[in-house]
């Protein structure tokens, strides 16, 4: 079963939000999902604990995961769930290394900022080291987050630079939507939000589904290439 790891050495890039959105979309589609919260701040475990009654039955959230338990947690979850999604701390530590070693796909969220791009480079270097250590290709994609319909000049430049370097970018981005942050305040899933809760939740729901579909298509491409 695919293990999807969200990794960034920088905070504030939408890593936990992206992990939660993906988990909710796959759960809404009827798949069992384990969401592993390996961030010491425990944003996802807190969400699940605070709003337990509205957490989908297909979604299990595991908190309190660290470098000593991350491998067992991932392996155990992968044996029973179609999807395992891991949210890591914003640093390149042993927990991140262990999780990446188990990943089928690493997603690297970043905003269209040069500082974020520099930190994404650190994650890519870590992935490449783990690939060499375990003698297998660990696939990854950069995911632009907190984007708007009108791209800034800086974001366009960064995207072009990544493409020129051959760094793969997920074709779908996480847009800047109030609905994504509202989940942590109001509970439930992106699909539970109404116009009374946030403005235009449908647009956020569509964006979430586009992102989840892009991840699935990337995993399928991997399977085809390996066949």
From TrEMBL:
SUPFAM superfamilies per the UniProt record, alphabetical: P-loop containing nucleoside triphosphate hydrolases
Alphabetical list of InterPro entries matching this protein: DNA_Partitioning_ATPase (IPR050678), P-loop_NTPase (IPR027417), VirC1 (IPR009744)
One of the Pfam families matching this protein, by short name: VirC1
Gene3D superfamilies given in the database record: P-loop containing nucleotide triphosphate hydrolases
Superkingdom, taxonomy of origin: Bacteria
UniProt xrefs under PANTHER family: COBQ_COBB_MIND_PARA NUCLEOTIDE BINDING DOMAIN-CONTAINING PROTEIN, P-LOOP CONTAINING NUCLEOSIDE TRIPHOSPHATE HYDROLASE
The name this protein goes by in its record: Chromosome partitioning protein
Species the sequence originates in: Pseudaminobacter salicylatoxidans
